[in-house]
From TrEMBL:
Belongs to the isocitrate and isopropylmalate dehydrogenases family. LeuB type 1 subfamily. It comes from Pseudolactococcus hodotermopsidis. NCBIfam families: leuB (TIGR00169). Homodimer. This is 3-isopropylmalate dehydrogenase. Its cofactor is Mn(2+); Mg(2+). Keywords: Amino-acid biosynthesis, Branched-chain amino acid biosynthesis, Cytoplasm, Leucine biosynthesis, Magnesium, Manganese, Metal-binding, NAD, Oxidoreductase. Its EC number is 1.1.1.85.
Length: 345
């Protein structure tokens, strides 16, 4: 049956990398007999320009009825004072679709090992997943900005924590059988509850080891001992920060994909980075984050394991061939890199 994929290209480098991702999908589809249709919708700043709101009704409805959603990136300085910012549209979309489980894999292609700013012996064997809670916590608590005071509320319920910890254990069970639960339990009440729930959930997974880490020291260990980790699970804000930090391991945000899943309904796939206004329109953005998000979509929404593998192999081969964009120290344009990946499919 034809799969309906809603695409949200958004802002900045968003449209450039989305085109790259869709070109790769179009080239791959006949090879794996994958039948799909693309339904592009306005989102983010582009939707503010077109419709006056970052998440128009038509976009939300299409997303709800899709088989999967691809999102590139939103935001930009020109929208910082918009009545509703692009970022708010993204948060509303995640909330409306119930996308509580954000999966951000960190693996370093062989070809990138020598490009990492870290020593090869530190990078060796790095392969972990950040599982970020995506629809709760301080992002969705009340925000109050007064002239001389401000307040952001961080709320978590037992159930919200339980379902994301379970996702982490389910993933760990199929991988390295270790969960590192990250919190700030020495200070925060939400973190104290987080730790209790993690211990409770762990009882149902006797084959998976659970360790706890405080977020500050974990931020350090992610760089000094990154190969120690298998599945890292944490709340919304910590997961945002730690996943950007993890991009230091491969050396660029430009290769980092993600998947966001709900209890029911379509999943959404997007790079972890933003709209990169500093390089938008220059044709030099790294499309790999988007292309690998397409691979994650094929595997996780459509069970197209082989197709996903074809894409990942083609990306690795392209990097091994030395086709590198500027963020990786190379000179290839987005179009050159995309063409090379397609020819390696
Ligand atoms: P950013 O992630 O857009 O960029 C950070 C740095 O990484 C920049 O130097 C950028 O050039 C580089 N970079 C990011 N993606 C790249 C790629 N594919 N290829 C090469 N280089 C890449 O973060 P920022 O500049 O702090 O934020 C810009 C805007 O994006 C803000 O409005 C922010 O709110 C928004 N944002 C959106 C998302 C999203 O759409 N999911 C995620 C993060 C930030
Ligand atoms: C991300 C982004 C978003 C977040 C912003 C744009 C709201 O940084 O997807 O990581 O903080 O979740
Ligand atoms: Mn982020």
């Amino acid at each position: 049956m034809t799969k309906k994929i809603v695409t949200l290209a958004g802002d900045g480098i968003g449209p450039e990398i989305m085109s790259a991702g869709l070109e790769v999908l179009a080239a791959l589809a006949p090879k794996i007999d994958f039948d799909y249709e693309i339904d592009p919708k306005n989102f983010g700043g582009a939707a503010i320009d077109a419709d006056g709101h970052p998440l128009p009704e038509t976009t939300l409805n299409a997303a709800k009825n899709a088989d999967a959603i691809l999102l590139a990136a939103i935001g930009g300085p020109q929208y910082n004072d918009a009545p509703v910012r692009p970022e708010q549209g993204l948060l509303s979309l995640r909330k409306a679709l119930g996308l509580f489980a954000n999966i951000r894999p960190v693996q370093i292609f062989d070809a990138l090992k020598h490009l990492s700013p870290l020593k090869p012996e530190i990078i060796d064997g790095v392969d972990f997943v950040v599982v970020r809670e995506l629809t709760g916590g301080i992002y969705f608590g009340e925000h109050t900005l007064n002239e001389r005071t401000a307040r952001d509320v961080n709320d978590y319920s037992y159930e919200e924590i339980e379902r994301i910890i379970k996702v982490a254990f389910e993933i760990a069970e199929k991988r390295g059988k270790k969960v590192t639960s990250v919190d700030k339990q020495n200070v925060l009440a939400t973190s104290k509850l987080w730790r209790i729930v993690a211990e409770d959930v762990a009882k149902s997974y006797p084959h998976v080891a659970l360790e706890h880490a405080l977020v500050d020291s974990l931020a350090m260990k992610m760089i000094t001992n990154p190969s120690d980790f298998d599945v890292i699970v944490t709340e919304n804000l910590f997961g945002d920060i730690l996943s950007d930090e993890s991009s230091v391991l491969p050396g660029t945000l430009g290769v980092m994909p993600s998947a966001s899943h709900a209890a029911n309904g379509p999943s959404l796939y997007e790079p972890i980075h933003g709209s990169a206004p500093d390089i938008a329109g220059l044709g030099i953005a790294n499309p790999i984050s988007m292309i690998l998000s397409v691979a994650m979509m094929l595997r996780e929404s459509f069970g197209e394991t082989i197709g996903a593998q074809y894409i990942e192999n083609a990306v690795n081969k392209t990097l091994l061939d030395g086709i590198l964009t500027k963020d990786l120290g190379g000179k290839a344009s987005l179009k050159e890199m995309t063409a090379a990946i397609i020819s390696n499919l």
